[in-house]
Amino acid sequence: MFKIITLSRKDMKILVTGGLGFIGSHTAVALQQKGYEVVIVDDLSNSSIEVLDGITQITGIKPAFEQLDLRNESSVKNLFNSHKDITGVIHFAASKAVGESVENPLLYYENNINSLVYLLKELTKHNCKLIFSSSCTVYGQADEMPISEAAPIKKAESPYGNTKQIGEEIITDVCKAYPDFKATLLRYFNPIGAHESGLIGELPIGVPQNLVPFITQTAIGKREQLSIFGGDYPTQDGTCIRDYIHVVDLAEAHVVALEQLFDTSYTTSLSIYNLGTGAGNSVLEVVKTFEEVSGVDLPYAIVERRTGDVIQAYADTTKASKQLGWKSRFTLAQALESAWKWEQKLAD
Fold first, then answer.
1. Cα separations (Å) of 340 from 152, 240, 249?
2. Would you list the DSSP string of 20-64?
3. Residues 100 and 149 sit within 8 Å (Cβ to Cβ)
4. Cβ of 166: how many Cβ atoms within 10 Å?
5. Catalytic site positions
6. Which domains occur in the chain, in start order?
7. What percent of the chain has a predicted confidence (pLDDT) above 70?
8. Which percentage of the chain shows pLDDT scores above 90?
9. pLDDT at 5
10. Which segments constitute the NAD(P)-binding domain (predicted)?
């Protein structure tokens, strides 16, 4: 869709921070399959070096890997001195557990904000494009469904959510101050699933904070039962509604958004897109769909609501469809089936 005139993809080196994480690893695969050279940075605090092998097996290419902490400014400078030909950065690296952010807010502000600032210092020096991993959490409980990019940003419910809002504000200010700098903010809804190969997927450390890995771990026997937080919400079955997008769809959206930034005719300095399916499913609908695709009866219990959970959130994806030419391809059932395949592979 977009014309990259000055360089071919094979001459374009893309830095993927947090590239061994759930979304980062799938995006690294999508980039390499499109012909980009990839450099992954990860501190391995919430990921595994084995993911690098999965990326290599899928693509036939081992991406360059640097283990470093982006909170160290000198390490970030050295990274860009070592890779002077980086043309774009997709920034995933961040702490992302809502509950943990409430308990340890300073860790979240240091990790999520400082690393972004140090990266931006280098990007503005080296004329690199930026894709920023943001979140629908910036909308809070939106007044209307589906949620469009024009929806107001509401006060964050957690330090994690606040770091995403602050991150967006910092990038907005940098775009204003540096006319040649281009960035795109991608607001994810709820990524789930795994690569069809079963070689990479979601690897939560400890008790999963997200619904689908908790479902698959319960189904495989790692967890005694699934806890559903709240059964008295004003929805059709009393459980929260979310927009669950297959991680492969999400990864492909990053590649398309990056190519828009590289399009020499594209002059917008800052773009914002929602990434979701455009449809909402309740927690109980997800459970039922998983039982259908897996053949497993899932033990679950309705427990007290969880602080910070909104009633419903699903995306209006019109803007991404029109301006990026991107739409999600996978169904909820396909995403859950891939997540179950990944969980079974982990158990082997």
1. 36, 22, 17
2. TSHHHHHHHHHHHHTT-EEEEEE--SSS-THHHHHHHHHHS---E
3. no
4. 16
5. 160
6. 11-192+245-276+316-328 (3.40.50.720)
7. 97
8. 89
9. 45
10. 15-337
| pLDDT, tens digit, 9 for 90 and up, residues 64-81 | 999 999 999 999 999 999
Q: What is the pLDDT of residues 2-47, one digit of tens each?
A: 554 445 676 789 999 999 999 999 999 999 999 999 999 999 999 9
Residues 201 and 24 sit within 8 Å (Cβ to Cβ): no
- Long-range contacts from 120-125, C-beta under 8 angstroms, 24+ separation: 120/170, 120/171, 120/174, 121/73, 121/76, 122/76, 122/77, 122/79, 122/80, 123/89, 123/181, 124/174, 124/178, 124/181, 125/80
pTM above 0.90, yes or no: yes
- Which residues, other chains included, contact 315 with Cβ-Cβ below 8 Å and sequence gap of 6+? 136, 146, 147, 189, 243, 274, 275, 276, 277, 278
Cis, bond preceding 234 (omega within 30 deg of 0): no
CB of 287 closer than 8 Å to CB of 298: yes
Q: In angstroms, rounded to a whole number, what is the distance separating the alpha carbons of residues 90 and 183?
A: 10
Pairing of strands 129-135, 86-91: parallel
The tokens describing 223, both together, are 């967890």
